[in-house]
Write a structure and sequence with these properties.
Strand content: 5-15%
Strand order of the largest sheet: 3-2-1-4-5-6-7-8
Shape: globular
CATH topology of the largest domain: Rossmann fold
Keywords: Cytoplasm, Lipid biosynthesis, Lipid metabolism, NAD, NADP, Nucleotide-binding, Oxidoreductase, Phospholipid biosynthesis, Phospholipid metabolism
CATH architecture of the largest domain: 3-Layer(aba) Sandwich
Distance between the termini: 49 Å
Family: Belongs to the NAD-dependent glycerol-3-phosphate dehydrogenase family.
GO biological process, one term: glycerol-3-phosphate biosynthetic process
Number of strands: 8
Bound molecules: 1,4-dihydronicotinamide adenine dinucleotide, 1,3-dihydroxyacetonephosphate
Number of helices: 15
Structural class: alpha/beta
Protein name: Glycerol-3-phosphate dehydrogenase [NAD(P)+]
Radius of gyration: 19 Å
Subcellular location: Cytoplasm
CATH class of the largest domain: Alpha Beta
Length: 331
C-alpha cells in the first residue's frame, strides 16, 4: 500500500485525504492547527473546514509535521499558496530528496509572483515536483462524487506513477508534462472568478459573465504561453475546466467574494465572516505584477487587483474595462 502524507488539513487537504484512501493509500493528514487534528481524530470529521462530511476512519490525523513527513512516500502540499514556502522549508530537513511533492495549492506567491513550483524548488530543492490542478470543489471530492483533474510533472513516468497512486474511479487524473500551464490556469482562474462574481453581484447579466470568462481565459492563455506553457493545457481541466467551475459555482470562495463585492458589501466585512482562504486576492496582486514585468496585457486581473488590493471604485473599474479600444479577438 502506498503511503501518502497530505500536508494541510483545510477543505482541500481533507478531500484529498479521502480521495487517496479511495485510491487505496495509507493516508496521514497534517493539520497546521492542533485543534483541527484533534477534531479529525475524535470525530472523523473536519468541523473547521469541511463540516458535515464523514471521513474515512483510517485517515491518520497529526499536528506533527516531522511525523507526517516521515509517514509519506508521496507528499501532497495542500496548504494555502502563501504558506507553502514556510511549510516546505520546515519539511526540507525531515524528508528524503527522492520523495515526490505534489503541489495542490493554487496561487502565485505575493511579493515574488513565483509559481508554487519555483517556491518549492527553493524551499525543497532537488525534489521531483508535480502539480495537481482541475475543477474540484473539495466537498464533492470528499463525498466521492466524480471529478477529474490534471496531474502534471515534467517527468512523464513520474506523472504516470502519481496518477496510479492518487487516481481512482471517481477521481480521474489525466497526466501532463505542462507544470507551468497547470499552475497558471489553476492560480489565475481564482482572479477571474472574483471578476465573474462581481459581474453577477452587480446584475450585469449572463452575457457579460460569459464574455468575462472567455476574455479571462484569453488573458490566462497569453500569460501562460509567455511563461512557456502549452496553449492546449489552457483548454484542459486545469484551464477552461477549473475556470468554468469557479466562475459559475456557488461553492467557490472566489466567485462568492466577487458576488458580495458586486452587491456592495465591503471586502473587509466579507473576509471577517470567513475562516477559509480566498486565494484570488493574493494572486491578483502577484499576477498583475508578473504580467507587467512580462509585458502581457491582463486587464481583468489588473481590474480585480485594483478593486481588492488598492481600494479602486468598482463602477469606475468596470467602466474602464468597457471603455477599452476594440481589438482583434485573437490578441
Ligand atoms: N477548497 C477547494 O475546493 C480547493 C482548494 N484548492 C486549493 O488548496 C489550497 C488550500 O485551500 P483549502 O484547503 O480550501 O483551504 P481552507 O480555507 O479550507 O483552509 C485553510 C488552511 O490553511 C491552514 N493555515 C492557516 N494558517 C496557516 C499557516 N500559517 N501555515 C500553514 N497553514 C495554515 C489552516 O489550518 C487550514 O488548513 C488553496 O491554494 C486552494 O486554492 C484547490 C482545489 C480545490
Ligand atoms: O479551486 C477550486 C475548485 O477547483 C476552489 O475554488 P475556490 O477557492 O474559489 O473555492
Amino acid at each position: 500500500m502506498e503511503r501518502v502524507s497530505i500536508i494541510g488539513a483545510g477543505a482541500w487537504g481533507t478531500a484529498l485525504a479521502q480521495a487517496a484512501r479511495r485510491a487505496g493509500c495509507e493516508v496521514t493528514l497534517w493539520a497546521h492547527n492542533p485543534e483541527v487534528a484533534e477534531t479529525l481524530a475524535v470525530h472523523q470529521e473536519n468541523r473547521h473546514y469541511l463540516p458535515g462530511i464523514p471521513l474515512d476512519p483510517a485517515i491518520r490525523p497529526t499536528a506533527d509535521l516531522t511525523h507526517a513527513a516521515e509517514a509519506g512516500d508521496v507528499l501532497v502540499l495542500a496548504t494555502p499558496a502563501q504558506h507553502l514556502r514556510t511549510i516546505a522549508e520546515r519539511l526540507h530537513p525531515v524528508t528524503g530528496a527522492e520523495v515526490p511533492a505534489v503541489i495542490a495549492a493554487k496561487g502565485l506567491e505575493r511579493g515574488s509572483s513565483a509559481l508554487m513550483s519555483a517556491v518549492l524548488a527553493e524551499a525543497l530543492p532537488g525534489r521531483p515536483a508535480a502539480v495537481l490542478s482541475g475543477p474540484t470543489f473539495a466537498g464533492e471530492v470528499a463525498r466521492g462524487l466524480p471529478a477529474a483533474a490534471t496531474l502534471a510533472a515534467e517527468d512523464t513516468e513520474g506523472a504516470a506513477a502519481l496518477v496510479e497512486t492518487l487516481g481512482s474511479r471517481a477521481f480521474r487524473l489525466y497526466a501532463s508534462t505542462d507544470v507551468v500551464g497547470a499552475q497558471i490556469g489553476g492560480a489565475v482562474k481564482n482572479v477571474v472568478a472574483i471578476a465573474a462574481g462581481i459581474v453577477a453581484g452587480r446584475g450585469l447579466g449572463e452575457n457579460a459573465r460569459a464574455a468575462l470568462i472567455t476574455r479571462g481565459l484569453a488573458e490566462i492563455g497569453r500569460l501562460a504561453v509567455a511563461r512557456g506553457a502549452h496553449a492546449e493545457t489552457l483548454s484542459g481541466l486545469s484551464g477552461l475546466g477549473d475556470l468554468t467551475l469557479t466562475c459559475t459555482g456557488i461553492a467557490s470562495r472566489n466567485y462568492t467574494l466577487g458576488v458580495a463585492l458586486g452587491e456592495g458589501h465591503a471586502l473587509a466585512d466579507v473576509l471577517a465572516a470567513r475562516r477559509s482562504v480566498t486565494e484570488g486576492i493574493h494572486t491578483a496582486k502577484a499576477v498583475t505584477a508578473l504580467a507587467e514585468r512580462a509585458g502581457v496585457d491582463m486587464p481583468i486581473a489588473a481590474g480585480v487587483d485594483a478593486v481588492v488590493n488598492h481600494d479602486a471604485a468598482l463602477d469606475d473599474t468596470i467602466d474602464a474595462l468597457l471603455a477599452r479600444p476594440f481589438r482583434s479577438e485573437s490578441r
